Amino acid sequence: MSTLNEWQDYLPDYLDGLKVTLRLTGVSLAGGLPLGLLLALAMTARRRTVRWPAILLVEIGRGAPALVVLYFVYYGLPQLDLTWSSFVCAAIALGFTTAAYTADIFRAGINSIPVGHREACQALGLSHGQELRLVVLPQAIRVVIPPLIGFCILLYQGTSLAFAVSVPELLSRAYSQASITYQFTSTLVLAGLVYAAISLSAVALMRARWPGRTASVTDVEPPGEGLARTTEVTHAP
Amino acid sequence: MTPESKPLLTLDGVCVAYRHQEVVHDVSLDVAAGEVVALIGPSGAGKSSLLRAINFLEPPSKGRILLEGVEVGGSRRTLDALRRDVGMVFQSFNLFPHLTALQNVMLAPEHTLGLPREQARERAMRQLTHVGLAERADAKPGKCSGGQQQRIAIARALAMEPKVMLFDEPTSALDPELGAEVLATMRTLAGEGMTMVVVTHEMHFAEDVADRVVFMADGHVVEENSAGKLMRDPQHPRTQRFLNAVRGR
Ligand SMILES: Nc1ncnc2c1ncn2[C@@H]1O[C@H](COP(=O)(O)OP(=O)(O)OP(=O)(O)O)[C@@H](O)[C@H]1O
Ligand SMILES: [Mg+2]
């Protein structure tokens, strides 16, 4: 049997797995992104009692490997009488990791807004909430979209960790095929191709929309031209 | 200022400190309604710090700010009133780049004052017309010249219909030609009776437009007088030295 024929047999099962993978990605993002934004707002808050817990949570989320978080939720929490399905556990763990990473992206985006804009808001009598909603976030969102997309792609690939708690996602489908046929190379290559097809199309879409931007998770670029035109001038006395 | 008129704005023993380092020491000043006060002095004198203390962007470390005799700062309510009644124009404009000129100007009337959107828009349009930029209403700030941006920023502050306008070196980020159009706008405002406190390095503006000039150095008010007197016949050697240096360049 040629590899292509094998692949044809595997594909329907893989596509079912892909659906689970995409659903897990979606649910993790749906929970993690809003939480990440909240954490970012807390990290940039003026009050220390708000700032420190958020920073701690984010550092834990970024510091601990996602697999460790996943095992903690799956094996650790049941000892506290909290038991969920493997899918829910994976979504919670990946959602937490998402929140921690994107909090840092959001925070960098918020901090990229010139202080002068915030002072202008205060001078105009806008409340702190209005300042965020009307001036800071609309500008920050443009800055953070490319790194956020970069993170989404990493997360999509990272959902393969859920294999470890037997969520029937894409990688686990490949693995069970392989355990039947012992064709590890061809099954894993096909799984890789399915992952890549989605990731690469996402990158291509992003490149088309934001030319010249990288989808790096760590780089938050400063606002583009026209966004921040502050001029510093020094005077001769 | 006539002796019986109550000052609109009073600074009473105002100090400003950054991390316990005091940079403005015990400044007292009365500004009458309709008066234009120019604040001049060398770099680092504390002019910006003092101006920012007036609207609590940098709350005074000591002393009191009174607006129409009411002390500011005790409560949220007096602070809100202060921000409504005191407009500020910055050296670097600080326009919101994601909004059009019109949206920049109508933001505070709509959200701070809670005016209905249509009314806020009308008011904003009136102010843009006032500074001669009605035709730039739908332009983003990034597409406007520096002079236009600063005039939009002036319109944005005016849209709150403030009682006092503070200017912190509004022209020093601009080349002279564009600065001139901003100065012309400010001159018009002064002519209309707006109360203004202006930090400036434009000695001509101080001399021609201001009623009173306050010279600051090292965080102190060194000398203050009517514009004509201070500019032509400064009493304090520090003032003389500063004016000679500025004019000699
Ligand atoms: N945010 C700050 N933190 C710490 N020190 C500051 C801060 N802002 C100003 N200073 C210091 O306070 C002093 C007064 O500064 P300020 O900006 O008020 O002077 P200025 O008269 O406006 O000068 P310039 O003409 O250069 O604008 C300076 O020594 C400055 O270094
Ligand atoms: Mg200054």
TrEMBL record, chain A:
Membrane topology: Multi-pass membrane protein
Compartments (UniProt record): Cell membrane
Main subcellular location of this protein, as a coarse class: membrane
SUPFAM superfamilies named in the record: MetI-like
Pfam family, one: BPD_transp_1
Statement: the UniProt record of this protein carries the keyword Flavoprotein: no
CDD domains: TM_PBP2
Sorted UniProt keywords: Amino-acid transport, Cell membrane, Membrane, Transmembrane, Transmembrane helix, Transport
One of the protein's GO biological processes: amino acid transport
Gene3D superfamilies assigned: MetI-like (1.10.3720.10)
Domain ABC transmembrane type-1: 18-206
One Gene Ontology MF term: transmembrane transporter activity
Region (Disordered): 216-237
Gene Ontology, cellular component aspect: ATP-binding cassette (ABC) transporter complex
Chain segments annotated as transmembrane: 20-42, 54-77, 83-103, 143-164, 184-206
Superkingdom to which the source organism belongs: Bacteria
Family to which this protein belongs: Belongs to the binding-protein-dependent transport system permease family.
Name of this chain's protein: Amino acid ABC transporter permease
Protein's organism: Nocardioides marmoriginsengisoli
Automatic annotation (TrEMBL), chain B:
Protein EC: 7.4.2.1
Subcellular localization, as worded in the UniProt entry: Cell membrane
GO MF annotation list: ATP binding; ATP hydrolysis activity; ATPase-coupled polar amino acid-transporter activity
UniProtKB keywords: Amino-acid transport, ATP-binding, Cell membrane, Membrane, Nucleotide-binding, Transport
Matches recorded under CDD domains: ABC_HisP_GlnQ
Catalytic reaction annotation: a polar amino acid(out) + ATP + H2O = a polar amino acid(in) + ADP + phosphate + H(+)
Gene3D superfamilies: P-loop containing nucleotide triphosphate hydrolases
Transmembrane segment boundaries: none
Membrane topology recorded in Swiss-Prot or TrEMBL: Peripheral membrane protein
Alphabetized Pfam families for the sequence: ABC_tran (PF00005)
GO annotation, cellular component aspect: plasma membrane
InterPro entries, per the entry: AAA+_ATPase, ABC_ATPase_HisP-typ, ABC_transporter-like_ATP-bd, ABC_transporter-like_CS, MetN_ABC_transporter-like, P-loop_NTPase
Domain ABC transporter as annotated: residue spans: 9-243
PROSITE patterns, sorted: ABC_TRANSPORTER_1, ABC_TRANSPORTER_2
Domain of life: Bacteria
PANTHER family: AMINO ACID IMPORT ATP-BINDING PROTEIN, GLUTAMATE_ASPARTATE IMPORT ATP-BINDING PROTEIN GLTL
Recorded family membership: Belongs to the ABC transporter superfamily.
Name used for this protein in its record: ABC-type polar-amino-acid transporter
Organism: Nocardioides marmoriginsengisoli
